[in-house]
Amino acid sequence: MKGAGGTSGGIGQFFIGLAMMCGGFYMLLNAIKVTSSFGFGSHLYQFGGFGLTSGMVMIPFMFGVGLMFYNGKNSLGWLLTFGSLVALIFGVISSINFRFSYMSAFDLIVILVLSIGGLGLFLRSLKNIETRYPEA
C-alpha cells in the first residue's frame, strides 16, 4: 500500500504535519496586523519634491476611458486606462504596512515550532522510507 504522495512515507506523519503546519501558519497570520496609509492627500509616488496622489492618477484614467468610448481601437485610450489602473493598484499595494501584534516569547516559539516542525513532518512524509534491513 502506498503512503502519502504515492510514496512509502507515513500517512500519520502526513496528517500530523499538515495539522501542525496549518495551525502554526494560522496563528502566525492571525498575529500580523495590516494597515494602510492610502487615503486623501497621501502620495502614491514621490518624484523629487513632487508627490503624485491617487486623484492625479485618475485624470489619465478618465481621459483613457473617454478615448476608449469614442474609438475602441484607439491604442492611446487603452494605454492610458490600463496604465493608470496598474499605477493605482501598485500604489495601493505599496502603501500597505504589516506589523506583528504584541506577543510573548512563548507565543512566538509555539507558532514557530508548529509552523516549521509541521512543515518538516509534512515534507518527511513525502519521502520514500527504506525498508531494507542489513543481513546478519
Walk me through this protein's architecture.
The chain has a two-stranded antiparallel ribbon. Strands 2-3 form a two-stranded antiparallel ribbon. The protein is elongated, with a radius of gyration of 26 Å. Helix content is 57%, strand content 14%. The model has no long low-confidence stretch (mean pLDDT 83). The protein has 136 residues and is an alpha+beta fold. It has helices spanning 11-30, 54-70, 75-94, 105-125; strands at 32-36, 43-47, 50-53, 96-100.
Layout of SSEs?
Blueprint: H1 11-30, E1 32-36, E2 43-47, E3 50-53, H2 54-70, H3 75-94, E4 96-100, H4 105-125
Antiparallel strand pairs: 1-4, 2-3
Which features would summarize this protein structure in a list?
136 residues; alpha+beta; two-stranded antiparallel ribbon; 4 helices
- Mass-distribution shape: elongated
Low-confidence stretches: none
Helix fraction? 55-70%
Taken in chain order, the helices and strands follow as: HEEEHHEH
Strand order of the largest sheet: 1-4
**Structural class category:** alpha+beta
The rounded Rg comes to 26 Å
Number of helices: 4
β-strand amount: 5-15%
Tell me about the biggest sheet?
2 strands, antiparallel
Query: What separation lies between the terminal Cα atoms?
Result: 27 Å
**Total strands:** 4
Brief summary of the model shown:
This protein has four helices and four strands; from the N terminus they run αβββααβα. Strands 1-4 form a two-stranded antiparallel ribbon. It has a two-stranded antiparallel ribbon with strand order 2-3.
